Amino acid sequence: MQRRTFSLFVLAGVLLLVVVACGQPPGVVPGVVGVSIDGGDVALDVGESVGLSVSVEVVGGADESVTWSVDDASVATVDEDGVVSAVAEGVAVVTATSVFDDTVSDSVTVTVSEAVAVVSVSIDQDDTALNVGESLALSVSVVATGGADESVTWSVDDASVATVDEDGVVSAVAEGVAVVSAASVFDDTVSDSVTITVVGDVTVSVATDGTYVTLGGVRVSRTDSASGTRGVTFDVAWEDSWREGGMSYVAADDNWDATWVFAKFRVDGDAWRHARLAADGHVAPADAVVTVSADGSGAFIHRAEAGAGRFEADGVTLVWQADADGAGSGAEVEVRLFAMEMVYVPRASFRLGSGGSENNAFSAGGTANEPFLVTEQRSLSLGPATGALQWDGGGLSGTPMGSTLDAFPTGYEAFYVMKHPLTQGQYAAFLNTLTQAQADARKAADDEAFSARYALTGDTVGEYESSLPLVAMPYLSWADGAAHAAWAGLRPMTELEFEKAARGSAEPVANEYAWATPGVLPATGLADEGTIDEAPVPAGAIATLDGLLPGPARAGMFASPGDLRTQAGTSYYGVLELSGTLWERVVTVGHPSGRAFAGLHGDGTLDANGDAAVDGWPDVDGAGAGFRGGSWDASRSFARVSDRAFAADEQ
Prior knowledge:
This protein is mainly beta. 10% of the residues lie in helices and 32% in strands. The protein starts with a helix and ends in a 23-residue tail after the last strand.
């Protein structure tokens, strides 16, 4: 009996231990009765998150954990802890599934909507400088969701320096610094701001009348105390630009057009002076090249890459040596920008003379009429000897004797030349920055007797203008043209450079004009006369010659994009109207004063008499200068590239 009792006791103990280990009475099978996500369906905005909780009913000690999943992760995601994150607008189903029994689960629908919110406000312009009286229209970019109001309110922290209106137009009031802000109307905690520095001592203007160049957004910074410089910032644009074969009427594939930009300034209302640029520190947009001349007189701006058509360079900054020029902070300064379209003629060998019947044309010494090959920059001997440059001397072509200076520009080295003839608008702008005595010398007193579409009026500096600003400027003497070149920081071209600019490196064609054929169709009339659309009649005309028009026409009117050279009347490098319109006033090799020319540039100044005062230039009487390329009122034969009938005519 005792053993049985002991055995039962042991058996009972075993059963008791089993109950403790399993946590259940004998005979219960583990299982998951149900899974229930608490709270039901969910609505979220994009970017929001919510943590879901779940209730799991189990029996028999079954595992109570769940796995989370979503049917469209592009709408919402869910992590292992049940945290749902809204990704994009839409509907997704989030499910909690029993780990113990994946047939038991629960789901909720998550509806994601775009939040009604303003995400960001960004003013599109960077910190900038304005001159007193100047205005700048700011623009703003607003990122909003859910249809939130995208409007902003504008404000400024110091209205004594600058004001801003409801459209974001900032007006500079007085020298100083102001912060202009744009804040979201929907959520004023979202905003952006820019700093406006107002320069109180500079006013700006541009002089582009008579050009096809646009200058805008001009502003001049206050003087940098460390360098003594000011930044002159502007936007520049022009039509029919090209680089490296981009224009159909340009035969060269290694050149480009450019705009020469320079500045004049005056202090406290005194005489205008030429602004001198620093050697470095200038800023060019990514698609532009800015090259400042060695003497700091101005800058060439052109395309950085091959192309053609309208060209825009926004935010060009030139560094002006203002302190050295006497125009630092504290002075009342006025700055005026000028622009002239130019064409780059690259370094290259070329030939002088065509082998045709032109008057007094160049040829190689010791030959009957063979063109002379220029292969380097060097002194040239003149005359009939082998290796010399010769011509049939006589008349007004000069005498082939002696030699040129080593530095005389033979045309071999690269140079820039004006794209089209000097216009009446450009000449008026020139007169308006001279002293009265200088302007009187450069504008003929008897100009009321001039005809030939001469439309320059005014007798006081600041008031000169032309009703035909784009028409080429007639009746200029050598002294007039030389003065304009010196004032602009440029120089006259030589007659050798004239032939290079016209013919380029191509083989000469006997008796050719600038467009490389011996034929010409001159204009006999004008359509849209006196307007920017002035055009030749007949439509296929390519030059102004033979006195068939009452005077010169609109500069550049013969060329249109898509034209060939023979349709546009352009030179090898794309220079307009080298044959006809106006005579080119060149430095000649037919006179000792011309042969002494070393190619020095003007520095932007004239003497008190309004004359160019540059060492080695032909004097005001024109000795050493001459005429090439023909004119509107001259016989067409004189417009041939190699014709030198008046190459040493000094009148």
